[in-house]
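Review form for a predicted model. The reviewer records the input and the model, then writes brief findings.
Reviewer: anonymous (R2)
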Amino acid sequence: MGRDAARGVRMDIPVFVSCPTSLSPHQNDARKIILSHLQQYKLEARSLGRSDYPTELPLREVLVIAKHCAGGIILGFEQYRSLDGIDKPGTESESEARRGSGLPFPTPGTSWRRGYSSAWACRC
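Model under review:
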């Protein structure tokens, strides 16, 4: 048994949580529910701009935080909505977005964060 455990200090496992800063009330409610589940399972959410603040380049800081985490969660909430457009242009699956229906998109950062989280899982 570790020294902190012997003293009864609760040690949460750090988990990197990537989430947009600007959220709608509904998205923020969903975020709070997810964070409460993490706490319930003794996981500590670590996020750039929320629990940790960059001293240098933000991308570098993401890597620094992630190195000290046991895993990662990417909350890819909608951050952009196109009200008109073409989905999969030039392919057999091409379709036109219906005017006013809206096509929701997460930020481009969601994709690179997902890639980094895969790399974190493979780190040696």
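Findings: The longest strand covers residues 13-18.
Further findings: The beta strands are 13-18, 43-46, 72-74, 80-82, 86-87, 95-96, 103-105.
Recommendation: see findings above.
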